[in-house]
Structures are given as structure tokens and as C-alpha cells.
Amino acid sequence: MAVAEIRDLGQYCLDLARRARRASADLAIVRGEIKSRWLRAAARMLREQSCDIVTANSLDVDCAGHFGLSQAQIDRLRLTPERINEMAQSLDEIDALADPVGEIIESTVRPNRLEVQKVRVPLGVVLFIYESRPNVTVDAAALCVKSGNAVILRGGKEAAHSNQALVELLAAAAVEAGLPADAVQLVGTSDRAAVGHLLAMDEWIDVAIPRGGESLIRRVAAEAKMPVIKHFTGNCHVYVDRSADMNMALAVLVNSKCQRLGVCNTAESLVVHAEVAERFLPRAGEALARHGIEIRGDERVCDLLPSAVKASEKDYAAEYLGPVISAKVVASLDEAIRHINRYGSRHTDAIVTADLAAAREFAARVDSSAVLVNASTRFNDGGQFGLGAEIGISTDKFHARGPCGLKELTSYKYVVYGNGQVRE
Question: Between vectors from CA 57 to CA 15 and to CA 35, what angle results, nearest 5°?
């Protein structure tokens, strides 16, 4: 729907929310085999209609310059037959996962013979607000619907044509499979005021999930009247302990920082134990330099790496999303943990160590959604964790933390079976 066709934006948003609420009531009791049929139909249509989707996407790519997108952002926007096939494969993987709805999480029988069950149920209606990556449209819709939720998608204007084509395909697959027609809806306007209207509709929408830049997420967190699952920034650390294998530490650091610069689980900070700094930092400096990475470090880092730039206080808390990393030399594991908890964003932090006690202390004390031992920060990802895909990575502690997959898009209720018991 074009903006000019929407005369009353508030009423338009209310209609979206009401239709989603009705669809969510139906979805809550849809059998798993019907949701599976929808996922398979959507995957098939993605492959069959790949050329049509690429054509729609090319309209967005052609306009990307007008929106001021960088080359990296344009690359994330672009769809190719290969990327569309990857989207279809993601649907296949989600289809293969167990349906979480109706799972009995716990069950006990009380002394009075009441059977008390804790049963997994959908959240209801999800408002998902995200930026320019169109593949996220398919992942989010698949995760929401398989977990029994209706979803309202509000994508970035940069991907408007791509998202429209994808949601039309998903809707056609829903009709074919027998799902509610409004299980997946797209906000058909780029007017920012639509987001404000929707964020006020807590009577109809159960949870908002923003995925994108910090300014978007802070706006949603400030305006939403319903709960928000969010993370603001991804200042992720790699800590090289005094017992670390130097080759392993170098491989983990380079992969954590250099595999992809512009994503939230990329390492932005390096912390090195003083006992290995002289051995490790020169090698790390050379390896990072080969990838064009600038190091901003403390006095000890700058002494060991003449090419390093003196770090400011802001550098230690920064999410660069680019070719820069902060670096700090610490005297102990305790100092490393305190530094990470002070400057980190509770997203992803890794330790490289051969000391099991140090690994356990790091894992217990570092307050992040994911702590990795002897592995890259880049593994904090729904697909890598076996969730099929993710709708986002939460740094909250309520209601979900870390990659949000099917189970994170559910809640629970208690179902109690009796035989005429009354309370005395």
C-alpha cells in the first residue's frame, strides 16, 4: 500500500493490529503439520520465484544511493539467487525443528492428586521493526508463525520492494497451507509515525522486537507500551589469558574481529594478560594490520605496537562496526573481568585459556548473553546455536537472553487437571 492511499494512519495501524490479534488466536491452536506445510510451501516458492524476487530487489538496490547507504549496507540489501536459496534452506531448517507450542515444560502430581503442568504457549502478536536486510523478513516470519505468533513486520524503506515481494509470497503460501491470511502482515508505509501508533497499541500487540541501529532500538524502548526484547550495542571482547595457546588466541581474535566487521557479534575489544602481552600483541598487531584494522590501546599496548593509537575512555565502550579495535593489557583475570563488565554491552565475550578454573570463573562472572571459551564471538548466532535462525540477540535478562529462536518467542501457562478436588 502506498503512503498516499492511507488517509488515516492511526486507523490503518489499528486495523493491522486487530487483524493480527484475530490471526494469533487461530495460530495458537493450529496443528504443527499445517505450519510445516506453510514452511515447505514458502521454501518452494522462494526457489521457484527467485527471478521475480531479484527483480523486486533490484529496484531497492538501484535506489540505495538516494538513502545514503554504504557499499557494505548495499551488499547486505542485495539479494541473489544464491542468497534466496539460503533463505529457503533456513525455512527447511526451521521446519525440521520441534514445534514448541504445547510442550509440557514441567509436570508434577500434588499430594491431593492434582496434576500441575507448565505448558509452552505463544506470546501472541509480535511487532518486529528492523532495517534493510530483506532476508530477515523471511526468518522473522518463519520463527514467529512456527512458534504460534502472528507478526507485524515493519522493515526499512530501503528494502520496501523486496519486503513486499517476500511478504506476498509468504501470504500466498499461507493460503495454500491453510494458515490464517493475516498471520504475516507488512506495514505498507514508510511513514515513521506508523511505528509510534503501533508501539502504543499494547491492547493488541504483545511484544515489540527492534533489530537495527542503536537509535532505532532506543526509540522503540522509549515509546513502546508493551514489553520490548532488545539489545542496544555489541561491544564484544576477546580476552587472552596468561595460559592461552598463542596460535589459538590469534585465530580466535582474527575470526572474531575480521570475519565480518558490521555485525553485532564482532569483537570490538581485545584484553590481554600482562604475562603474555609481549608475546601475543606483536603477532596480533601484524595479523590485524593485514586486515586493515586500527588498534587503539592503553600505554602498554602502544609501547609494544608503535602503530597503535592511544585509546580514549570512549574507545573501550565503543561498538565500531568497522576496522577499529580497542586493546587493554591487564594484570590479572580479575582485572579482565572487571574491565569487560564495566565497558561491555552484555552481548558476547570470549576467553582463550588452557586453565579450566579460569574459564569457569570467567563464564560465571562475565555478565553477558553468551560467554565463549576458546571460540570466536561470531558463534553467538541462532543458526550456529542450533535454533534454525534468530529474530534477534537479546541482552535483556527478561524474558529472553541471547539468540531468540522458537522457544524464546513463547511463554507458558499452567494447566491443572483434577478429579473434583476443592480447596479446604
Answer: 55
Amino acid at 319: E
Place of cell 529472553: 400
Q: How would you write the pLDDT of the chain (424 residues) with one tens digit per residue?
A: 444 468 899 999 999 999 999 999 999 999 999 999 999 999 999 999 999 999 999 999 999 988 888 887 898 899 999 999 999 999 999 999 999 999 999 999 999 999 999 999 999 999 999 987 899 999 999 999 999 999 999 999 999 999 999 999 999 999 999 999 899 999 999 999 999 999 999 999 999 999 988 899 999 999 999 999 999 899 999 999 999 999 999 999 999 999 999 889 999 999 999 999 999 999 999 999 999 999 999 999 999 999 999 999 999 999 999 999 999 999 999 999 999 999 999 999 999 999 999 999 999 999 999 999 999 999 999 989 988 889 999 999 999 999 999 999 999 999 999 999 999 9
Q: CA torsion 311→315→319→322, rounded to 10°?
A: -30
DSSP state of 259: S
Fill in the DSSP letter of residue 387.
Answer: S
The C-alpha atoms of residue 335 and residue 328 are separated, in whole angstroms, by: 10
What are the structural domains of the chain? 3-229+404-417 (3.40.605.10), 236-384 (3.40.309.10)
Q: Which amino acid is at 219?
A: R
Q: Report how far residue 264's alpha carbon sits from residue 236's, in angstroms, rounded to the nearest whole number.
A: 8
CA gap 362, 350 in Å, rounded: 9
Q: Are 355 and 333 in contact (CB under 8 A)?
A: no
Locate 163 and state its grid cell: 519486503
Residue 76 corresponds to which cell in the numbers above? 547486505
Q: Which residues of 44-77 are buried (b: 16+ CB within 10 A; e: fewer)?
A: ebbeebbeebbebbeebbeebeeeebeeebbebb
Query: What does the alpha-carbon distance between residue 108 and residue 118 come to, in Å, rounded to a whole number?
Result: 9
Dihedral of alpha carbons 63, 67, 72, 73, sign: negative
Half-sphere exposure of 10 (CA within 13 A, CB side): 2
Classify residue 290 by its DSSP letter.
H
